[in-house]
Each structure stands twice: as C-alpha cells, then as structure tokens.
Description:
There is one protein chain. About 30% of the residues lie in helices and about 15% in strands. The chain has 10 helices and 14 strands. It has helices spanning about 35-45, 75-95, 150-170, 185-190, 205-220, 245-255, 285-295, 305-315, 325-330, 335-340; strands at about 10, 15, 20, 55-60, 95-105, 130, 145, 175-180, 230-235, 260-265, 295-300, 320-325, 345, 365. The strands form 4 sheets. It has an 8-stranded parallel β-barrel with strand order 3-4-5-8-9-10-11-12, surrounded by 5 helices. A two-stranded antiparallel sheet has the order 1-2. α1 (about 35-45) links the parallel β3 and β4. The protein binds flavin mononucleotide. Flavin mononucleotide binds next to β4 and α9.
Amino acid sequence: MASRLFSPVTLRRVSLPNRIVVSPMCQYSSQDGRANDWHLIHLGGLALSGAALLFIEATAVEPDGRITHSDLGLWNNETEQALVPVLDAIRRHSSTSVGIQLSHAGRKASCRVPWEGGTQLSMAEGGWETVAPSAVPQNDGERPPKALNVADLERIREAFAASAQRAVRLGIDGVELHAAHGYLLHEFLSPISNRRTDAYGGSLERRLRFPLEIFDAVRAAVPADMPIGVRVSATDWVDGGWDLDQTLALADALKSRGADWITASSGGISPRQQIALGTGYQVPFAEAIRRQTGLATIAVGLITEPDHAEAIVAGGQADLVALARGLLYDPRWGWHAAAALRATVDAPPQYWRAPPREHAGVFRRQPRSV
Ligand SMILES: Cc1cc2nc3c(=O)[nH]c(=O)nc-3n(C[C@H](O)[C@H](O)[C@H](O)COP(=O)(O)O)c2cc1C
C-alpha cells in the first residue's frame, strides 16, 4: 500500500508532496529580532530534511512580545530584510514550503535564553515590563505583567496583521498563529491567566474574543489563497483550566473564519500542570479536533518513528505530522522515513549519490536550476 505520510495534501494555494512538517523551534539566536547566518544554517539544513513544510520559529510581532532579547522578530523593515537571504537560499536549493509562526510571548516575555536558565530578567538586568490579559504572573515571585487595555489590544492586533503582511512580502507560504504554550493568545483563552471582567474575559465566548480578533485581522491582511493555521494548547493539564471541550469550540469558531489547520499541542500556562507524557501523547487532541470540527490538523509531540507518523495519517488522526526534536537529532528524518515506508522524497542533486543501495530509489530526482 502506498504511504499516506508521503501522499500529497493541499492547504489553499500550497501543495505539499508529503505530510511531514518541521515544527517551529525558537533558536534564541537573533539580535534586535534579525535573522542571521545561524538561521541560514539551521533552516537551510532543515529545508533539506525531506519535510514538505518548514516552519520558521515563533517570531515576535513586536519587541516586547519576545521571550528573550534573542528571539526572532518581524516588526520592522530591518527584521523583514534580514529574512530575505535565508528565504532566498532555501528557495534556491530546496522545494520545501516555508511557513512562519507569529507570536507574542505575553507574560512569558523578558526571560533569559534557556541555556542561561530561562528565568525572568529583572528590570536591572535589562528585562522589560510584560503584558497579559490580567496582572497575574506565570510563576510565584515574578514581576506581575501589565493588564492590557483596549488601546494595547488594538496595537497588538495591528502588529500581528503588519507582521503577516511582511510575511506575504517575503513570499512565505503560510502563517501559523501561536496560541499555545502559555503565550499571549493562550493567556486570553485560559481562565487561569485571564481574569478580566470586560468583554475579553469571563465566559468562554469572551475569552475567545481577542484570539479570534487577531485571527480575523491576519486573515484580512493576507491574500485569500494564503493558508493560515493556529497552534493551540488543547489542554492546560490543570483542573479548572483550558481543556479539550473549549479547544473544540475555538476550533469551530476558527473554522468558520477561514482557518486552514490546527496544530494540537498542550500545556505551558501553569507550573501546576500535570502532563501525561508519552509517545504521541497529544495525537488524541489532533484526532478529536479533526473528527469533531472537520478542520485539518497537525499532530505534534513525541512522534519519532516513521511507522508511527504513517499510522497517525493513515488512521485519520491528523492530516500532517510535525516533528521538532526528532528532526534536530536526525535532520534527514524525511529521507529515512521515505526509505522506511518505500516512498520517495525530494533531495538536491548534489546529494543524489547519498542513498545506500537498498534505498537507491528513495529520491524523486527532480532537476532544479541552481
Ligand atoms: C528547541 C525547541 C524550540 C521550540 N520552539 C517552539 C516555537 O518556537 N514554537 C512552538 O510552537 N513550539 C516550539 N517548540 C515546541 C515544538 O515545536 C514541539 O511542539 C515540541 O518540541 C514537541 O515535539 P517533539 O516531541 O517532536 O519535539 C520548541 C521545541 C524545541 C525542542
């Protein structure tokens, strides 16, 4: 039987030859939000992984929306121009489609990079005032964020839309809004972080409001044939927090507004989370969203084996499968999956001599003009 993981799928104008996705991965390697030679090496390498869709890391829509001083951004001409050589190189040497994840870190901004501990920077250390739906910190002892007022919400909506327009100008193929992992949009969704009493807090409908406004602003800012998806935390893993039922309501609302996929992740809003970690532990969320709303889903989280990825797609649990750590560890994972599943994958002609004899037919030899 032909592999389903290596069957084509279409998201609006984007046709993908397989369903393998490079999950967005923060690199904390930018200066003033600008991409540089690290991004060229990192993304360039992953563009040769065999994955049909490659996401650029969580990219801040305004400077205060960065997790760290070193996050990638897309808020001005300098940050936009810095991505040009990276994208040019990928397009010259790879057939992968490129998406970008747009993000605002909310109350999880102003931190050290993970390899320096990841903890909040004090103002004296160069930190900045964080923002959130309510003045409730993520962790005890942290500086409380500023509760956003209506003018702030307007500014952030416009920042998302402006970044999306920059992505369009850069020729990026698709946009994913980061509404997961405890960052700003998730903070509006979850009753743990959203204690507002105005039109943006309280009932489920009100907690959905700001993320949906952001979605509408971005959808309106980009061409109608450009796909847009949303990454959600399908559950907070905390009693009384955001959960799958609420996620399904959000997904329904997003579908009716023109979302093209949901990436089903989880957690990140509270140190009280109790995550049931295990192989493919978030796949049931992708499956529930797909089955109950009819939206395409991307499954992610501890998916490392080609057979498992194949079973997820073949079993109708998700339309696409994203890998993060597995692709960092084995940046030719897509090749190896194609070989294991007796499928074919694009590779640059410079590498056509690579496959061992038993996998001699694994490359779809499509000559490219270099
Ligand atoms: C180095 C690293 C950076 C990450 N950065 C992001 C990010 O920018 N946006 C995001 O939504 N998830 C991010 N994640 C989470 C991954 O995209 C993915 O959801 C998670 O690692 C689970 O998938 P995996 O088991 O294949 O690694 C990151 C993960 C890693 C390991």
